[in-house]
Amino acid sequence: TNRIFSGIQPSGDLHLGNYLGAIRRFVPLQDTHECIYCVVDMHAITVWQDPEELRRATRELTAAYLAAGIDPKRSIIFNQSRVHQHAELAWVFNCVARIGWMNRMTQFKDKAGKNSENVSLGLLAYPSLMAADILVYKATHVPVGDDQKQHLELTRDIAAKFNNDYAASIRAEGLEPEFFPLTEPLIAGPATRIMSLRDGSKKMSKSDPSDQSRISLLDDADAISKKIKRATTDPEPLPSEVEGLKGRAEADNLVGIYAALADRTKAEVLAEYGGQGWGVFKPALADLAVAVLAPMADEMRRLLADPATIDGILAEGAERARPIAQATMKDVRRIVGFIG
Ligand code: ATP
Ligand code: MG
Q1: CB atoms within 10 A of CB 340
Q2: Is 206 a catalytic residue?
Q3: Fewer CB within 10 Å: C terminus or N terminus of the chain?
Q4: For residues 61 and 26, is the Cβ–Cβ distance under 8 A?
Q5: Of 111, 227, 229, 246, which residue is the catalytic one?
């Protein structure tokens, strides 16, 4: 069977990269797969979060899932901390994974910067908790942005090492030798890595200190237009073919955003706008972004006006997620040799 799992951190303002690279792609998967979409609040606190702000961001992300078209009747939507088995399995994985594997993660290096001795231990162990999120449901596929590819590889490494380290015990318990599946990432489309509007070499992120670097899902039309019009670009007009975007990171990014929002290819976008300057393309992109994002923002605001309903959806989702996670942990406990 195929099972989808994916999670997003409630760690700041959701942005266009989260939408195009992840949330939007979660929706059609509901037609073909059993889907579990998580608000990973335990990941968020790997970097300190104001508690009130964490609650706000948890509800905002849930509202974004719903507004984008994730159906809480068909899919499971819940917040990670409610299902304790994530933390329990993460501990076992901390004992399976090697410190060297964690030290090689580019996300850790980027987020820790020069300060790597003084960030939380949780930030280093982040991929181990992520592997637990996925594998506690034995998910087969994980739709994510391109930046998570390395973490998915590590998830496979952890699954393979667990299956191997405990092979005899897995056999003795009469379980499948591939106890944990080797989960595949689903990274596809023209928007797998949206870049910062200020710096074409950095990905758009919630944690970027500059609000101008990203288009937030709750930005109003005016803010969206201003950010796009001020986005860093070179002075050249747009090329007529995709080849011409090579070495022009900012131009490539804006054309990619247009293509993703319009459900077209970059080639199609350039067939229309090739030869045009930014004075033509940026306003067209701003109008398109507003047309796509404004109705979703309105729906998010409508949902956020009733936090009790949102909290109820998260509670109900956790009730459905928990039995799946419990069944996996029951086996893991026996495999590892815990009594009781
Ligand atoms: P943070 O800076 O706190 O890590 P983030 O913006 O990277 O925040 P995450 O919660 O880490 O967001 O990631 C949520 C999902 O969004 C993941 O699937 C990730 O791959 C995807 N994603 C994040 N940034 C981008 C981006 N710039 N382009 C495409 N997908 C992205
Ligand atoms: Mg991230």
Answers
A1: 3
A2: yes
A3: C
A4: no
A5: 111
Note the helical H segments in the chain: 16-18, 24-29, 41-44, 51-68, 85-96, 99-103, 106-112, 121-135, 149-165, 167-172, 221-230, 249-262, 266-273, 278-304, 307-336
Q: Mark the ranges of the chain whose per-residue pLDDT is less than 50.
A: none
CATH code of residue 217: 1.10.240.10
Beta carbons of 55 and 61 less than 8 angstroms apart:
no
Q: How many Å lie between the centroid of ligand 2 and the Cα of residue 206?
A: 7
The complex's ipTM?
0.99
Do the Cβ atoms of 25 and 186 come closer than 8 Å? yes
- The closest alpha carbon to 122, from 112, 110, 134, belongs to 112
Q: What CATH number should be reported for the domain holding residue 129?
A: 3.40.50.620
User: Token pair for residue 247?
Assistant: 């070495």
What is the count of structural domains for the chain?
2
17 touches ligand 1 (CB under 6 Å) = yes
> Residue 189 has what pLDDT?
85
Which-ligand-closest: CA of 8? 1
Ligand 1 center to 33 CA (angstroms)? 22
Does ligand 1 have an atom closer than 6 angstroms to the CB of 144?
Answer: yes
Q: Is 199 touching ligand 1 by the criterion CB < 6 Å?
A: no
- The reply to whether 168 and 270 lie within a common domain is no
Determine the 3-state secondary structure of 270 from DSSP. helix
List 109, 114, 206, 246, catalytic entry: 206
Annotated catalytic residue 203: yes
What pLDDT score was predicted for residue 115?
85
Q: Is 109 a catalytic residue?
A: no
Q: CA 279 → CA 16, 233, 273, 288, distances in Å?
A: 22, 11, 11, 15
Distance between CA 255 and CA 224 in Å, rounded? 16
Q: What is the pLDDT of residue 262?
A: 97
Both structure tokens of 183: 């989960």
